[in-house]
Amino acid sequence: MNTERTAIVGGSGLTWLDTLKVEQQKIVVTPYGDPSAPLTFGQFGELPVVFLPRHGAGHTIPPHKVNYRANIWALKQVGVKRIISVASVGGITMEPGILCIPDQIIDYTWGREHTYVEPGQSPVKHVDFTEPYCEDLRQALIEAGMNASVRLKKDGCYGATQGPRLETSAEVQRMHRDGCDLVGMTGMPEAALARELDLCFAHLTLVVNWAAGLGKGPITMQDIQSHLEQSIEAVKLLITHMEPC
Ligand code: HPA
Fold first, then answer.
1. Which ipTM value was assigned to this complex?
2. 185 is in an annotated binding site
């Protein structure tokens, strides 16, 4: 067990870190079921990491079926203290191609297992979530992004939708009025579960399309894919500039 490792939860386009020097893989059992994949321990540049692909090694688990509780629990169980959660998003106020480290969340998801608090547990624990992200980790990501010279927005509000369908243009307009800058399907309950377990958690988001109704015509998977491939390179570059914790 190594408490110095940074966890990287990979999203769409990041089911594997190709330059990761793998040390070992571990199947972790949790009280909440199986994580999305075995945990991979290794070295990513100078950074000792534990990597977990959120959608499974073969990218088969849709956003509403990810076992978020098992994933975050497993990372805690192996001694991780901080989690970089990589997630692709649609842009509401920022254009495809940019990376963003959001500082706020609005949760529109429903029906997901979103807490470790059990019915009947006494006392009921209410975690503070005023600032949903770990500011130290946000700042470390921002600094790494500046050193890596990637296009980066330092703040923004992440709106978490249920998926797996994309949004209607009216839903995106509502999210805009609510103050959302980004829309994604996996940000919650991941962030809140990390807070319940006292883990330092931040999102590294990649804007891969204009959100519904804001671009030219319908959102195509080809469009998403082309931005995804470019932005994933920027994500990897940023992470290689992260200081070990
Ligand atoms: N909406 C929700 N999730 C997403 C999007 C989007 O437009 N793009 C990438 N993930």
1. 0.99
2. yes
State the number of CA atoms in the 13 A half-sphere of 137 facing the CB: 24
Number of separate domains in the chain: 1
* pTM of model > 0.90: yes
Q: Which residue has the tokens 């009216």?
A: 170
Domain annotation covers residue 245: no
Q: Is residue 68 a part of any domain in this protein? A: yes
Whether residue 57 lies inside any domain: the answer is yes
Ligand 1 near 185 CB (within 6 A)? yes
146 is in an annotated binding site: no
Provide the CATH number for the domain around residue 148. 3.40.50.1580
Most ligand 1 atoms within 8 A of CB, residue of 109, 167, 190, 205 to mutate: 167
Q: If you measure from the C-alpha of residue 88 to the centroid of ligand 1, how many angstroms do you get, rounded to a whole number?
A: 7
Q: What is the DSSP letter of 153?
A: E
Determine the distance separating the centroid of ligand 1 and the alpha carbon of 232, expressed in angstroms: 15
Tens digits of pLDDT across the chain (245 residues):
444 899 999 988 888 888 899 999 999 999 999 999 999 999 998 899 999 999 999 989 999 999 999 999 999 999 999 999 999 999 999 999 999 999 999 999 999 999 999 988 888 889 999 999 999 999 999 999 999 999 999 999 999 999 999 999 999 999 999 999 999 999 999 999 999 999 999 999 999 999 999 999 999 999 899 899 989 999 999 999 999 88
Nearest to 39 by CA among 65, 63, 5: 5
Structural domain containing residue 197: 6-240
* Residue 127 exposure: Cα atoms within 13 Å on the Cβ side: 17
* 109 ligand 1 Cβ < 6 A: no
